[in-house]
Amino acid sequence: MTHLLDIVLLDGFLNNLVTWIMLHGGFFFLLFVVFAETGLFIGFFLPGDSLLFTAGIYLKMRPDLFYNLHYSIVVVLIIIASFLGNMVGYWFGRKTGPVLFHRKESWYFKKKHLARAHDFYEQYGKGTIFLAKFLPIIRTFAPIVAGIVEMNRATFIFYNIVGSIAWVTLMVLGGYFLEAWVKERFHFSLTEYIDVIAIGIILITTLPILYKLFFTKKKAAPANDNNSAAK
């Protein structure tokens, strides 16, 4: 979490990154980023939440960047990219399995990220695929872990679809309609405050769940149960 916030606070780094992606990378690069962040190892560092929110803002300001497509079509295409990214991650996990836990670490592969996603999966079960959509890093590794533990394919697809729809719709349409409201009411653009918005998104979506997962102590077993077991 600290690492993510440090990146966000680096003198407008995130603002410059997402703006560059939107203005120079284009819509297809946006789709690739979403695809990569939701299922490929190399995608865990990408700013998915902030990028989608910013995409919604630019969708309102610069529809030409999206080939003047209706916002509903753009949202559907991004949902498909998110869905396919998870499916690739799930397939990769099914094929590789436990080998990943013994793989040598590198600059783009850290066992701690995989272990964290595994712990999150154990804590929240099937709903992990839905919840992980709103959590940086875990979003990338959760489908891989689901494949490793051989989660039922139909169940995975269901939560993948629901999670992709919820995540993309909330982020993109949030930026789209909030930009219009702020522009009309306060006469400035949200693109000037992407860094602040990114911090807010990270805190709102990540802190409550991570706190429960890592800092809430499990209830100890009753003493009488231990004694009876000993007998």
Number of helices: 10
Overall morphology: globular
Give the strand tally. 0
Oligomer kind: single chain
Structural Rg: 19 Å
Low-confidence stretches: 1-11, 219-231
Q: Pairing-aware structural class of the strands and helices?
A: mainly alpha
Characterize the main sheet: none
Helix content: over 70%
Strand content: under 5%
**If you average the pLDDT, what whole number results?**
76
Order of helices and strands: HHHHHHHHHH
Instruction: Report, as a whole number of angstroms, the end-to-end distance.
Output: 45 Å
Write down the domain tally: 1
General description of the model:
By secondary structure, this protein is mainly alpha-helical. It has one domain. 71% of the residues lie in helices and 0% in strands. The protein has 10 helices and no strands. The chain has helices spanning 2-8, 13-37, 48-61, 71-96, 111-124, 128-131, 138-148, 153-186, 194-214, 223-230. Helix 2 (13-37) crosses helix 4 (71-96) and helix 4 packs antiparallel against helix 8 (153-186). The radius of gyration is 19 Å and the shape is globular. It is a multi-pass membrane protein. InterPro entries: DedA-like, VTT_dom. Residues 46-176 form the VTT domain. It comes from Flavisolibacter ginsenosidimutans.
Quick description:
By secondary structure, the chain is an all-alpha fold. Helix content is 71%, strand content 0%.
Throw out a few tags for this protein.
disordered C terminus; cell membrane; transmembrane helix; 231 residues; mainly alpha; DedA-like; transmembrane; DedA family protein; disordered N terminus
